[in-house]
Amino acid sequence: MSVDVQDLAGRPVIIGGGIAGLMTALHLAPEPVLLLSRSLLGADVSSAWAQGGLAASLGDDDDPALHLSDTLAAGDGLCDADAARRIVYAAPGPIEDLARLGVRFDRTPEGALTLGLEAAHSRRRIVHAGGDGSGREVMRGLVAAVRSTPTIAVVEDIEARRLAVEDGRVTGVLARCSTGPVFLATVRVILATGGIGGLFHDSTNPLGSCGHGLALAARAGATLADLEFIQFHPTALDGPGRPMPLISEAVRGEGATIVDETGRRFLHGVRGAELAPRDIVARAVWRHLADGHRVFLDVRKKPGATFAQQFPTIASACNKAGIDPAHDLIPIRPAQHYHMGGVAVDLAGRTSVQGLWACGEVASTGLHGANRLASNSLTEAVVCARWVAESVAASPQHRGKPAMASDLPPPDPRPVRPLLSHALGVTRDGEGLKEAARALLLLFQRHDTASDSAAVGLMIAIAALQRRESRGAHFRTDFPHHAAGARRSQITLDTAVAAARELASSPTPESVS
Ligand code: SIN
């Protein structure tokens, strides 16, 4: 670590070095800010792995109203319509900001942005950079911009372990760096820690994305929202590698089909077929696998000969797995990909805890509802980062209270993975969720290295148990239909623990409803 963090007390502290964290830091400049990254800046963050790009209504045939209507339709009745409207209408602006910061977006020979198609979008509106390497290119541009901004102090190899809260207000961050525990006194903390894929066996996220920000917020007393809605991507490369390589939906946008071992396009009868909303395609693939079939992506005819050129990252992952997409079918299965739920925030990123903001995947603005529309997440991160920064800059600024730094062991998600993978996958049922909730409660109460991951898993399991319907990415085989009057869900760590304790002591179906 090259900076003495004690000299930086009082600055806003951003936890997380993905697109949301970096953009928030850049928008806060020239206000001095401290950015904490668990590894080398730009490494091991989901943002850098994003193949899809940023959705924005930029085409001549497009309109923000159409983008909004696609977002609301994919969200299956649970989006916050006002939040969605404000975000999609603001979407084109940050793309210009990113281009100004040096991000090289894919363009036509005439210089216009190339617009791709992904599932459930009624228009071509996905802006890519470097083909299927959009996240990598956006991160390259942002990391360079952050490194050359003198007011942003970046501390690498540091992990936040707890937030200090007094009388409902943040007073600092307890963290661990290479030299030991440190306490960072601050009254302004921004969570930008990404998602939860590391809590599942099969995920397209970096292993370190294991709900760390959700645990920090929940232990600080924050309210979380929509935790039961976890997106499974239908086309992860089915091989031994973990995390699983993603095969972007953009490949289906260019005409690739999903077939089984007999060559049958079993999605043919589904409205939208391969480009139906992601939850629908994921469930169809999941069921076909459960019925004993093998499932493949066929890119041989379309995109065909241009596949490797258009999708170099995916072509390379296939080659590493011994698959030549020009001649072979690509084996696929669904894998955890994105969390629609998160820390409940308003559009300025404010959580229910004073002095705590959240931005990006860790936050739940209500944009995604029950099922995220492809490529809306990077858009949300870059749009909201500006609003978060404005809110942080306008909030009271004083040094937090110094405190002793105590050491806490690093979180270990391994005991939680089998529980979540089994009970909180593409389909769920009440019995499986209850069993998982009881086991997660026991793990949480052990107060050891698995406790933070267990807390996150427990809140998700209880939220899934309490939603006695199927909607978007949350499919309950025991409640397979929509329920009337469904709303977004809210939960805290205390209410989840209380519900799980009640469940453990009186295991009736109604006990947590
Ligand atoms: C993909 O490229 O299929 C993923 C895009 C996204 O998750 O939004």
CATH topology assignment of the largest domain = FAD/NAD(P)-binding domain
Q: What is the name of the CATH superfamily of the largest domain?
A: FAD/NAD(P)-binding domain
Low-confidence stretches: none
| Radius of gyration based on Cα positions | 22 Å
Largest β-sheet summary? 5 strands, parallel
* Mean residue pLDDT: 95
Which small-molecule ligands are present, each listed once? succinic acid
CATH class of the largest domain reads Alpha Beta
Tally of strands = 19
Query: Largest sheet, order of strands side by side?
Result: 6-2-1-10-17
N-end to C-end Cα span: 48 Å
Helix content: 25-40%
Strand percentage lies at: 15-25%
- Anisotropy-based shape: globular
Class derived from helix and strand content: alpha/beta
Number of helices: 16
How does CATH name the architecture of the largest domain? 3-Layer(bba) Sandwich
Domain module count: 3
Plain-language structure description:
By secondary structure, the chain is α/β, with parallel strands linked by helices. It folds into 3 domains: 5-195 and 340-393, FAD/NAD(P)-binding domain (3-Layer(bba) Sandwich), CATH 3.50.50.60; 233-335, Flavocytochrome C3, Chain A, domain 1; 409-512, Fumarate reductase/succinate dehydrogenase flavoprotein-like, C-terminal domain (Methane Monooxygenase Hydroxylase, Chain G, domain 1), CATH 1.20.58.100. It is built from 16 helices and 19 strands. It has helices spanning 19-28, 46-49, 64-74, 81-90, 92-100, 134-147, 212-219, 249-253, 278-290, 307-310, 312-320, 376-394, 417-423, 430-445, 451-466, 493-505; strands spanning 13-15, 33-37, 54-55, 115-116, 126-127, 152-156, 159-166, 169-177, 180-185, 189-191, 224-225, 230-237, 257-260, 295-298, 330-339, 342-344, 356-358, 363-364, 490-491. The protein has a 5-stranded parallel sheet, covered by helices on one side. A 4-stranded mixed sheet has the order 18-16-11-19. A 4-stranded antiparallel sheet has the order 12-15-14-13, covered by helices on one side. Helix 13 (417-423) packs antiparallel against helix 14 (430-445) and helix 14 crosses helix 16 (493-505). The protein is globular and about 65 Å long. The model has no long low-confidence stretch (mean pLDDT 95). Succinic acid is lined by residues 51-52, 248-250, 337-338, 374-375, 377.
